[in-house]
Amino acid sequence: MMLHIPSVLTAEQVAHCRTVMERASWTDGRVTSGYQSAQVKKNLQLPDDGPAARELGDLVLSGLERSAMFISAALPQRVFPPLFNRYEPGMTFGSHVDSAIRPVTGTPLRVRTDVSATLFLSEPDSYDGGELVVEDTYGSHSVKLPAGDLIIYPASSLHHVTPVTRGVRLASFFWVQSMVRDVSRRAMLFDMDTAITQLNQEVPKSPALVMLTGVYHNLLRQWAEP
Ligand code: NI
User: Fold this and answer.
1) Residue 204: is it exposed, middle or buried by C-beta count within 10 angstroms (0-12/13-18/19+)?
2) What string of pLDDT tens digits covers the 226 residues of the chain?
3) 86 phi and psi, to 5 degrees?
4) Residues with C-beta atoms within 5 A of ion ligand 1
5) Residue 177 CA to ligand 1 centre (angstroms)
6) Is 62 helix (H, G, I), strand (E, B) or coil?
7) CATH class for domain 3-178?
8) Per the count of CB atoms within 10 A, which of 27, 47, 135, 171 is most buried?
9) Contact assessment for residue 171 and residue 120, using Cβ atoms and an 8 Å cutoff
10) Is the pTM of the predicted complex or chain greater than 0.85?
11) Helices 51-66 and 11-23: crossing angle, nearest 10°?
C-alpha cells in the first residue's frame, strides 16, 4: 500500500528545515547503506547524530504525531529517527531494497523496517528529475510531491530515485516498525478505519457503527504485536 499523506509539515516548518539544511555540513550518503545499496547510491546526507538532523528530526516526528492518516495507515510501534538527504545535479540512488533491521545510532534499539517513508522538502518545480520510483505487483509508481508532503510504502518494495538534472532535491526519510507487521492486514485496518471515520460523519448515531468500531479494535488486538 502506497499512501500520499499531505501537509505533514506546514510551509513555515518546511522553510525552517531548508534554512537549517542550507547551513549544515553534509556527508556522503553511503554511510548508512548496506553493501548492495552503497554501490548504487550517490547523494549527500546530514550526519545522523549531528545537531541539524536531531532538531529537524524532532520537527518531523511531531508532524507525524499530529497526522491521523499516518497513524491509521502505519500503526507505528517505533519510528526510526528521521534522516535527511540532498541530491544535486548528477546525484541518484539506483534500485535497492531497504535493510530489514536498522540499529538506532547511540542506543541499543533496533527498528524493523516495515514501512519506508519519504518527506519531500523541496518544491517540485525547483528541481528536475529526483522522482522516487517504487515497484510493486501493480507496476512502477513515480512520486514527486509538494514540500511538506509524505509518501509511505512497504519497505519490502524495490525502489530508486531518478537522477537530479537541475536544482536541489532535499528530503527526509525514515522507517516505521508497525504494530501490525503484515502489509495486507495493515491495509485492511486502514480501510476499515477510514470507512468508520466516514460513517461517523454520515450516520453518527447508528448502532452498527459501534459494532464496526468494536470489530476494528478486536482485529487490532488480534494482530498487534506488543
Ligand atoms: Ni531506500
Assistant:
1) exposed
2) 899 999 999 999 999 999 999 999 999 998 877 888 888 999 999 999 999 999 999 999 999 999 999 999 999 999 999 999 999 999 999 999 999 999 998 899 999 999 999 999 999 999 999 999 999 988 999 999 999 999 999 999 999 999 999 999 999 999 999 999 999 999 999 999 999 999 999 999 999 999 999 999 999 999 999 7
3) -145, 125
4) 98
5) 15
6) helix
7) mainly beta
8) 171
9) yes
10) yes
11) 170
Count of CB atoms situated within 10 Å of the CB of 208: 9
**Distance of CA 120 from the midpoint of ligand 1 (Å):** 14
Beta bridge partners of 120: 171
Cβ atoms of 78 and 111 within 8 Å: the answer is yes
The residues with which 128 forms a beta bridge, in sequence order, are: 166
Residue 34, φ and ψ in degrees, nearest 5: -80, 180
Q: Where are the domains of the chain?
A: 3-178, 183-223
Q: What is the DSSP letter of 162?
A: P
Q: Which CATH number applies to 183-223?
A: 4.10.860
Q: Cα of 159 to ligand 1 centre, how many Å?
A: 6
Question: If you measure from the C-alpha of residue 142 to the centroid of ligand 1, how many angstroms do you get, rounded to a whole number?
Answer: 14
Distance 161 CA to ligand 1 centre (A): 9
> What is the Rg, in whole angstroms, of the alpha carbon atoms belonging to the chain?
18
Give the separation between CA 125 and CA 66, rounded to whole angstroms: 27
Running DSSP on this structure, what letter comes out for residue 125? G
